[in-house]
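Go through this chain for my students:
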Amino acid sequence: MTSPSRPLPLLAGAVTAALVTGPVLLPLTAHAADAPEISEIAYAGGDDTDFIEIAAEPGTDLSGWTVGSVTRGGTPQSAAHVVTVAEGTEVGDSGALAVRVPITNSVSSGSAADGSYGSSAFAVDADGSLVGFEQVGGVTGGKGVTAGGGSLLPEAVQGQEATPTGAVSARGETLQRVDGSWTSAPGTPDRLPGAEEPDPDPVEPGETLTIEEVQGTGETSPYTGQTVTTTGVVTAVYADGGLNGYTLQTSGTGADHELGGASSGIFVYSPQTAGTVAVGDSAVVTGEVSEYYGQTQITVAAGGLQQGGPAEAPVPFEGAFPEDEGERESLESMLMLPTGDITVTDTYSTNAYGEVGLVNGDEPLRQATDVVAPGAEAQAFEAENQAREFVLDDGASVNYTQGASDVPVAYVSTEDPVRVGAAATFTDPVVVAYGRDRWRLQPTEWLTGADADTVQPVEFADTREAAPREVGGDLTLSSFNVLNYFPTTGDQLSGCTFYEDREGNPITVRGGCDARGAATQESFERQQAKIVAAINGLDASVLSLEEIERSSAFGKDRDEALSILVDALNADAGAGTWDFVPSPEGQPEAEDVIRTAFIYQPAEVTPVGDSEILTDSPAFSNAREPLAQAWAPASDAGGATRGATAADGGSAAEDDGTFVTIVNHFKSKGSGSGEGNVDNGDGQGSSNADRVRQAEALVEFADAQAERAGTEDVALLGDFNSYTEEDPMQVLYGAGYANVGKEHTDEQTYLFGGRVGSLDHVLTSASLSADVAGADVWNINSVESIGLEYSRYNTNVTDLYAPDAFRSSDHDPLLVGLHRGGEDGPGEEPTGEPTGGPGEEPTDGPTGEPTDGPSDGPGQEPTGEPTEGPGEEPTEAPGDGQGDEDGSGDNGNGNGNDRDDNGQGDTGRGDDSRLPRTGAGLGALGAGLALLSAGVAAVIIARRRAQ
């Protein structure tokens, strides 16, 4: 990649301030302020568009002034939110100077304003005197935010109360002081509010070319770096939202466009003129041609736009979005109406960036090693994935969980959710764009949740299912990852740090203590309500759990969290519906803070003997040890008791209905050291050798448990952190275990990087496999937007919380039906219910194919480049990386770490102290995916976008 031809913006820092533009002549009708004051505050867009304007007499020296913003608690969100104006900076002839500085979008107004929070702007002169301290919103004459302390705040601000402006700005506008009162109006940086904008200087025409000539037929324009003049019809306008431009297309083109030829569209980057054009305008533009992160554009100054003559409107190109790179290039910046089957394949970053991963066809993309063998086959499979994927975007570059958190995000809803696996049907044309190493389909203006009814160009199928499909049998088994279910909340412990919502409320534990779940009781209750809805909806006879608190880590009974969960389940389902298997006497000397467990329905099954943990295997030094429990159907339990086993003469050996379940939670993929544990790029991630050893130890443990219970019927279940065709799974297959999910369903349990696959499995021994009646993956979690999690629901102004099963975790449960002596067992007359067994038609119910992000999965994280370019997303991103393909993670910060890992780890898409994470660091896994991509490059010739 080469650097972008447009200079990068000078971002505000702790040393020097970035000035928005140069001085502008002051019209005679406007007057500079008698004394310096804050005259304009821009906060409603992305951080890259925020600024605080100082009005003062022309020539006023602002060198050494400190300008910044505070948020909840009266303190700056970060060091970047306070800047020092550079030496030699003076107010120009306009009488105003704008200083670029980020301002958080935490606003309270009207009756809700009580001075407890609200972003506020301050300015302190070089002598240390407070010039102004203005709160966004609030009530005029009411109580304002009181500034806190700390090294970031100038002494003159500390302890002072901000003056409420009594106003907030509308979308695309700023707060401006006009005649002593604050109002919302289109921004006028470096120009006093109300002053007329001077006529722009004329621009010398360049060589007159058609858009097709400017684009050329290659990946880059043959006129890069040259000034040109071209003509077209405006097809999309992005005056707000950070893209700062519009697209032009040659008159009358589109319907008969030749794929592979020159594009008839081009992006015009022009903050100065974007607000003056409308779709359908005929325009003549003059500016310099450049390649901005892979997309050809013309940069047009204020004087570079002229009205064109009458022109025929372009017509959208209709057809399937191409998968050939050259054909996609030939559509760059043109109108298109995609047709054919299109499926959602990623929603992970939808709540933050308003983007949805798509793929042609009727299934989402699959994890390579969930389908084919690791190594060359997986690399070839992933190469095809990369060629097929593309993104539906929102026509903006803002972050809806940070700078634009008060703007309703599109494509995320509790009532009309966009889910992975859902069919997408385009109803209106979009513009083909390129940015962040992805092909993108942009609506023709900024799309938000507030105007989706009129602007959203696509409809999505509703694939939610209120309950799992019928799986048959007389007993059911399943496994559920409860997403760090910790009744011990962070506020009960010392040292905890927290992820916060957009209002500064602590939501989940970030680190500093052993708790890993909710920060407060209120947050815990939101989490618990969703888990209870999911587990009771699943309605399994036997349910294994992963990521539940080991309460003995906090000086409590080991099973306290388990007991609290069962009580909550029974309060919802009815007293006595659920019970839990108590911890055995023999426990590991050193355990993770998260554990595995079993709960069950006594009306359907009875535990046989005590549970047992594998306590003496070094293979599990960095993972949760397997936990085993034998069971008998409640109707056949006879004299079986918890203490009775085959070894001591209990009834288990005599009862052919007895079976053994063993719950597992193997080492995650995100980190590893030692031979065989470093990611080698074959698609299996880190710690593969350790997971293989854990699988081998599990086989031995399972044999011993089967002998102990006097049965050959064994089910292994849980989170194996291994996709279906990976090495650890091959160990289990080689030992005679069958993968129920692979043989009885066409659905997957997890989403990572825009690819679905199963990390959660149920495997049955040969004898038990004959009793499998059917299976279903209930896709309630991985396919949903992460914004619906209890930990994310208040990161945007749209309330995304619902006390239902959807996004109660990040893994989906696999429900398995078993015949254990009922009348409809093997050999009996069929019941008429589909079993979903091998040889039957796939179950293609409303969930379709499973599963989550955005398109910015591993290897596709924001690059840290500026956000003002077309199609680019903001550089600030949630510090909630997508985890280690395991909701447990390896970050060592109290959010599901494995015991062999230390340090905070990678926070994913950036460092945002407000947002909670689901899993943990992406660093090691991202590196591994980079290795896999390197292997992919050996299979195909990667497209190099000039930048």
Remarks:
- DSSP finds twelve helices and 45 strands in the chain.
